[in-house]
Every structure is written in structure tokens, then in C-alpha cells.
# Entry
Amino acid sequence: MLNRISTYFYRRPRLTLALFLAPPLIWFLVVYIGSLISLLINSFFYLDGFTGQVIREFTLKTYAKLFIPTNLQIFLRTTVMALSVTLASIVIAFPLAYYMARFASARMKTWLYLAVTLPLWTSYVVRVYSWKLILAQEGIVSWFARLVHLDGLLNWYLSNETLGGPSLSVSPTGIFLVFLYIWLPYMIIPIQTALERVPKSLIEAAGDLGATPAQTFRTVLLPLAFPGVIAGSIFTFSLTLGDFIVPQLFGTSSFYIGKAVLTYQGTSGNIPLAAAFTMGPIIIMISYLLLARKLGAFDAL
Amino acid sequence: MSEPAILFKNVSRHFGEVKAVDNVQLEVKDGEFFSMLGPSGSGKTTCLRMIAGFDRPTAGQIFLYGQDVSNLPPYERPVNTVFQDYALFPHMTIEDNIAYGLMIKGMPKSERVKKANETLDLVRMPGYGKRKPSQLSGGQRQRVALARALINHPKVLLLDEPLGALDLKLRQQMQVELKNIQREVGITFIFVTHDQEEALTMSDRIAVFNEGNIEQVGTPADVYEHPSTPFVAGFVGTSNLIAGEVAQRITGSPKRFSVRPEKIRLAQMDDQIEGDMFVADGIVRDVIYLGLYTRYLVELEGGGDLVVIEQNLRTSSIDVTKIKNQKTRLLWKKEHVSYVGG
# Structure
């Protein structure tokens, strides 16, 4: 009986494939694409300011609201934050990924993998709160600054209007540091994977043809690691764009996209505006990917 | 130039306890096609990598046209390598791959593209410049790798088993072409291989490696006809080693000797024996018909086996097998015997 079933499917590879793909496809179409479409539709409705009801009529009114200066600033602030976090992640992740891919022994590599991914084992909220302790006014950083008599410098930095705040735990710098910490693994692993796929002989070949280690890095390693960098930056960039917990906990009164969506959707019931806000990161991400493609990020794929 | 292209003075490369290369002396002449032949792990590739600069000797010195290069990094050595896996840069076009060395030297784009296309002509691949390595076959990649190395006019070109990944037909074709290209450009080639036929086909001289040492250096004919050690006799061709009492009976000396299978003639028991011949009697134990020739395994009287190869000039597969388990007499000229020691 079982044999006959096997034979039946063996002779009909297309049917077998369809059966295999149906669950993920349904999931993908209904849950992913479906919710995106519903989001898109909602963003074309508007909230009646007087009754507080969502009016289901096609309008661009809600989108127009995105372009008032306060909201534009939210987009700008969030994008700059996402970019800074991404760039800093690349700078920190690359050397470590490079070491893991090219020099670390198999044993050392296992330990480093563990060390890199270990933070992901614990709850995101717990880790974020632990940073609260590190960055708070009476926290470890301030304590250390006082210990080495650099508290003056720290206070001077915090008095900076765009970067500082009452303490590190309530400042854009704090948000930046926490984002950098929580998204870093998502940058290290793709870069490491990309670098590991570069055969050693390519690096030897570049040297053999006269390239100094710096030239080899620029002309061979970096271009081949670039898809990994882009993959990692898609994580860090989009995760930062959409996150609302970190700005909530470490932010001053300034909004970020995620926090804005949460507020409009949850607090004021303005689902159309929240939906329109969500379109922002999607459009930013698409532009980012198009730019990456133009830079040749996907050529080596 | 009278200066040797490559000179090894007491070169060793030890990896901890493992002596990959142990106190090797070697001289490669200018303009030579020189092969390093040996089984894997014999130290030939390590020697090549030390010439390229990817590895450094733990002792001894390496000279390139008189200059001590032992401690120069690869990018400061006027040698280029064709890698076993070709090592083409996957993100660059064929043109950019070939012109890579020129780009590093700072040659303007238009000039180096022109040179790259000239070099593509040299390796008989005109018009392939705009493609990517992934669009080429193994044999084509091999040519591109060769072009990428040759374009820099290295003083010595190093080839690390470059034909290993090709199928037999293509390999034989490339052997001839490599030799032709080498004659055309006149650069010293050092060719690493484990394939004795490849080494015999192309080389001016061959160094046979074994366990980190060089067993013999000589022309293909030297190495084949007069192996100086049992290892060389066995690795280059079929071994046919006879020693001790049986050797005493045949040659009058117990020294170990080697004789190539195609030099031996199967004779009748009553055939005339001339003075310059050695003779041995035995029984044919095995007959393998291989079309072009037949291999016979003959068990000698008093012990020991000899392999005999005879061309099938007049015989067919039925004829040759008749001799199986028959008594036979083997004859070969004394000059075809090499005393290999050991």
C-alpha cells in the first residue's frame, strides 16, 4: 500500500512538488502578502477627527499628513539612526567576521559562534533593560567615567542637543548603542559566511599577481564580502527602522517610526495613519535595495 | 643568463613534526620546462609554494636568478602561479581577471584591456574578454588562468597541477599546447604534477619527489631509462625490481636492478642467447590483453615477478592468452638494466 502511494507520487513529480510547496506558499500569500495588502488598503482610508471613526473611502489625505514637518523629521531621524547603526555594525562586525572566517581554528570558531549568538538566546526585553542599567545616570558607564575622571567629558557630551540628553539612558546615543548591541549578530554572521566562501587560493592569487594585502582586500575580499555586508545591513537597517521598544525605553520625547506607528495605531486608533507610516520603511528599504543593486551587491551571487 | 632561474640551498619546510620538505637542493635552469613529479604529500607542492612565496622555508635559502627571495612576500616576487583550482576572481570579467596584475601596477585601463586581449589570443581564446569565469568550461578557465599569469611576463611561471581537473583528451591537448606556449614565450616553467606521463611528455627535466626529498633529477629519458632509486623505478613506469639470489643468477650480482617491461622479449626456450643479453626463465602467470599491447606477468624461477609488455603486432587476443601457464624465456639487453640500490 505504502509502496503504491510512493510510486503514485514518484510518477507525478509536479503534484508532489505542489503538495510540498502548498503550505509555505499559502502561508506566504495569505499572511505575508495579505497583511501587506491590507496595510496598503488601510493607508488609503482616513480617520474622521470629529467622530474618531475610520472612514473607508479612498483618499490621499492620510499620506499628505506624512509630509508635515514633524512627521518628515520622524522619517529622517529614524533613517539616520538606521544608517548609523548599520555603518557602525559593519565597522565592528567585519574584523571579527574576518577573523572567524580566515584565521580562527575550528575550535575557536565554535566558541566565537557561541559568543556571537549567545545574546540571542535570552529575551530581547531583558537584554534591552540590562542596558538601562549600564547607561543609567547611576549606571556602570557613569561610574566608570567618574572613576577615571572623565565625567566632565561625559556631561559635556550629554549636553549636546542632537546626540545627548539627561543621561546616556535617555538619549539618541543610548538608542544607538543599544541598537548596535542587539543587531550586531545579524551583521556578523552574514559577513562571516560570505568571507568563508572565498577560497584561500583567490587571496593567494591576488598576492601572486602583485597585490599588497591592502590591495587584495580592496579588490578581491571586499567585493566578494559585499553581498554578505548587504545581507547583514538589510537586517540591521530594517530592524532599526521598525523597532519601537528601544526608542520607547531610551528615547527622549522624539518619535521614531516604530514608536509613531504604535502611538497612532494603539493609543489614538488612527489605523490609516499608522498604516501610511509603515509604508515609509517599506519604501526606504526598497530604495536601499535598489541602491545596493546599483552598487553591484548582487553581481557575485 | 648563466644564473640559474631557481636555486634551492638546503631548503627545509617543517610543519611541526612533519617534514614536508627536508633539506632539498635544486637547480632550475633559465628557460627550462621543469617538472616536479611525485605522489601527494611528497613535498613538490610545498616547494612550489615556497618559490611563489605562500610558504617560507624553515631552513635554507631560495634564490631567483641570484637574488635571495626566501623571505620576500609573494607580491614582491617576479613569479606568477597557475593554480590547481585556477583561482579566477568570480566577480570580474575575463578581461579584468587577466589584466589584474597590470591594474595593480597602475597601467591605464585602455592599455591593459588591449594587452589582455592580446594575451587571450596567445592562449587561443580570442573574444572571451567580456564573459565571467562562471560562463567558461574547465579547459577555458585553465587557459584564462594561464593568460592571467603570463601577461605579467614573470621570470618564472609556476604551475600547480593545472591539468588535474581536465578530462583525458583535453589534458593531452593542453600538454602539447602548454609546451608550445612555453617555447613561444621563452619563460622558465616549473610544473608540479603527480602524473608521470604528463611529466615525461612536456619536461626538459624532471625532479622526482618522495617524502620531502628529491630522489632523482634528470631528463625524461634519464629518469625513465635509468632510475637511480627503487622509488623512481616504481613511480615512473612499472617497477620490475629484482634483487638478491634471483638477481645473482641473472646478472651475476645480487644488486637490486630494474628493467622496463617493454624492453623484455618473450622468447622460445631454445632461442639463441646473445652475449649482450640477460636471460631469465619463468612461467607466464597472467595475460592481460589491452588492444594496443598485451601485459604478461611472468613468475621467475627462484622467485620474483617481471611484467612484460609486447605490442600486438601479429597477435590477437586469442593467440596471446594461449601462452598462459606456459614456460617461457625472457630476454633483454644488458644496457636496459638499471641498478637502483636500496
